[in-house]
Each structure stands twice: as C-alpha cells, then as structure tokens.
Design goal:
The complex is a heterodimer of chains A (53) and B (245). Helices cover 79% and strands 0% of the residues of chain A. Chain A is mainly alpha-helical. Chain A has a domain of 26 residues. The longest helix of chain A is centred in the middle third of the chain and has 42 residues. Chain A starts with 10 loop residues before the first helix and ends with a helix. By secondary structure, chain B is mostly helical. In chain B, helix 2 runs antiparallel to helix 8, helix 3 runs antiparallel to helix 4 and helix 4 packs antiparallel against helix 8. Classes of the chains: A mainly alpha (53), B mainly alpha (245).
C-alpha cells in the first residue's frame, strides 16, 4: 500500500469507502452521458429518416 | 409566478438551460469534491476516539444527506407534475430516482464499512439504518413501478403517488436517532445548534456536501435532458436542439 493511502489500523475501511464512492459517482456520470448520447444519436437518425421520406 | 412555472416547465427552454448549466455544476462538483476529499483525508486531524477511521464521515454524511435531499426533490417534482400536469416535472422526478438510489446505496455501504471497526458489526437493525434501507426500497419501488406501466401518463401518476406517500419516511430517518435509542450517533450538523465537529474537520465536510449537491444537479440535468428527448412529441424544437437540418 502506498504511503499516502496509509490510515493506521483503519486503512482498509477508509480506502475502500472512498474508492466505492468515487466508482459509484463516476458510474453515474458515465451511465447518464451514455444514455443521453445514445438517445441523441437515435433521435437524430429517426428525424433525418423522417425528413427524407 | 404561473408564467415562470410554465416557462420553466417548457421542454425546449429546459433543454437549452440544461446544456448551459451542466458544465458549470459539473466543474463545481469536481473542484469541491476533490478539495473536500483531499482535505478530509490529509488535512483534517484524526478523531480523538475513532482515530483515522472517522474519515469515512467525509463520504458517508454527504451520501446520506443527498439520499434524503434527492428524495424530497423527487417527490416535490412528482407532486408538481401531478397537480399542475407539467410533464417536465415527471421527467425530472424520473431522472432523479437512480441518482438518489445511488446515494442511498453509498450511505448504507459506507455506513456499514464504518460500523465494522467502530461497532464491531457490519449491520444492526437500528432505527436509522433500517429507515435508510426502506428509503432504498422506496427508490427501487418508484423505478420498478415506472418500468412496469407501459402507458407514460399512468406511469407518471402512479409513481408520483408512491413518491409522495414515501415522503413520510424522510422525517423518520432524520429524527430516528432522537425518537429511538439507537446505536447510530446523533446528527453531526444541525441547522439550529452548534455543529458537533471542530472547524478544522467541518470545513472539508461542508465542501464535500456542497460538491455532492453540485454533482447531483449536473447528473440530474444530463439525465433529465435524456428523459425530455425520449418523451418529446413536438419535433420542430427537437430538430433545432439536435441540429437536424
């Protein structure tokens, strides 16, 4: 374990708590952005197809 | 007032506003959470009883506060949608639910990790922990109900009712540590009284709470934008917003 991640006898608990929070927060951003991008692309394709037909 | 509500409730207006606001809240969240986390881990002094283990508070308290804050906002948005029939309010409530569920999961998980070294157990059926678990089930119930009903209007109404009824759990979570004899410690920050923490510790906690709040708003704006596109019927503004010529 690197020195900057040493928190005495509670290292495992402290590091795992912070790591879990950061992973879940990052997951929220990734999931929200991917869903938005997928919807934007799908809607663009649909609207373009409707305009051509 | 009505004009403002209806202007803000217009999907094109909301869409344009959310595109502008998202990066501001996103960057504010990144800066505040980085500062709060680094300060909480390295600058705050260790607790005289819990030692270094108390540092979990810097992620546990913001997650727990946000789990309740998001639920109240979700229920308010659902109520606005139900009373004034504003579709955007239902979209915002639907977008808030998964974010609130994430915060609730984090509050329970970090609380459990903190409980092990301090209480000697991962979990106890204590009033605070149990009512927070009920909150997680309320979020799951809200999302499951929406997913189970095909008709959008019926799904909006049914889930809004569930969200409003579930509000009763919020004061139970908040005051559980006062109403019952619990293992969980009393509130660290109270609106009325003096905080139970020293200023050197409190500053970083407040920064993280502010950061989590900005994070919620940024992700909500992204998710609500997706929800608005999914529900959009008027194609004219959508074509303009998505740059379809």
């Amino acid at each position: 374990m690197p020195e900057f991640l040493e928190f005495g006898k509670h290292t495992t608990y402290v590091v795992s708590s912070f790591a879990l929070v950061m992973v879940v927060l990052a997951g929220n951003v990734v999931f929200a952005r991917r869903r938005l991008n997928a919807l934007v692309n799908r809607t663009r394709r649909r609207l373009s197809a409707e305009e051509k037909s | 007032m009505w004009k403002f509500i209806h202007k803000f409730g217009s999907p094109p207006h909301f869409y344009r506003l959310s595109v502008v606001l998202t990066p501001w809240f996103g960057w504010a969240a990144a800066i505040l959470i980085t500062a709060g986390t680094l300060g909480g881990l390295y600058l705050a002094p260790p607790d005289y009883q819990q030692g270094e283990g108390f540092r979990i508070i810097y992620v546990h308290v913001p997650s727990a506060s946000m789990s309740m804050f998001v639920y109240v906002n979700m229920a308010l948005a659902a109520a606005v949608g139900l009373i004034w029939r504003i579709k955007l309010a239902h979209a915002v409530a639907a977008a808030a639910a998964p974010i609130g569920a994430s915060f609730t999961f984090l509050a329970l998980a970090t609380g459990s990790i903190w409980a092990k070294p301090m209480w000697g157990t991962w979990w106890v059926w204590d009033a605070r922990l149990t009512s927070e678990l009920v909150l997680l089930f309320l979020y799951f119930g809200y999302m499951a109900l929406r997913a189970a009903i095909d008709d959008e209007n019926r799904a909006d109404r049914a889930s809004a009712l569930l969200a409003i009824i579930g509000l009763i759990n919020i004061p139970i979570i908040k005051y559980s540590v006062e109403w019952w004899n619990t293992l969980h410690q009393p509130a660290t920050i109270s609106k009325m009284g003096k905080p139970a923490m020293d200023g050197d510790m409190l500053t970083w906690l407040l920064l993280n709470i502010a950061g989590f709040m900005c994070f919620f708003i940024a992700v909500l704006l992204i998710s609500a934008r997706a929800e608005v596109i999914r529900r959009a019927r008027d194609q004219k503004w959508l074509k303009q917003a998505l740059g379809v010529t």
